[in-house]
Known about the structure:
alpha/beta, 226 residues, six-stranded mixed β-sheet, 8 helices, Uracil-DNA Glycosylase, subunit E
Amino acid sequence: MNKKLEELEAELISCRKCPRLVAWREEVARVKRKAYRDQVYWGKPVPGFGDPNARLLVLGLAPGAHGSNRTGRMFTGDGSGDFLYPALFRAGFASQAEASAPGDGMALSDIFISAVCRCAPPENKPTRDEVSNCLPWLALEMKALGKLQGVVVLGKIALEGLLRLPAFADLPRRQISFGHDRFYETRPGLPWILCSFHPSLQNTQTGRLTAAMFDQIWQRAKCKLK
């Protein structure tokens, strides 16, 4: 990880700006789920994860209460990650299909994973103000990713959060709406945007998002990289 990202991570994990999220993430980490009773939960804001030279950013919603809030790594330890990482492996972005915890050998190539909200929210629903509090961290991450060319947004809230960043403020919002596999060029100096349904169990177990649909997203993203 480059120095800018390392410094940013050190600052981010000490953030306590949102009282509701701080209380929730720490309560979950204290009470724990029965299956993970013997584990030490992370219970802090979750930093981005991946290749500091990445050309592609993957943007999710927020850490899962017993996933990233437990493991401390994006999309690691829950059903969403169990669907995401195998897809990234098939596309050549990940070194392995399974992601269980930091230290499991997972390495990402040309890709960096982040989220618009860094603390686990109750019912997976951060408020608009909570997302606003977190967006500066995303802006700093993106600035530190000097080779960034594109962003794959996982879900509507991720797209909305991205578009609220100051750098994206002058884009024609009415012409950018969420839909699976929708692609948007932006303007010189900004990464393009590719939308995908979020790999939540709500989407994957109902067939709204299939493995074939998800694979198509990553192949399309690879083709757009220069």
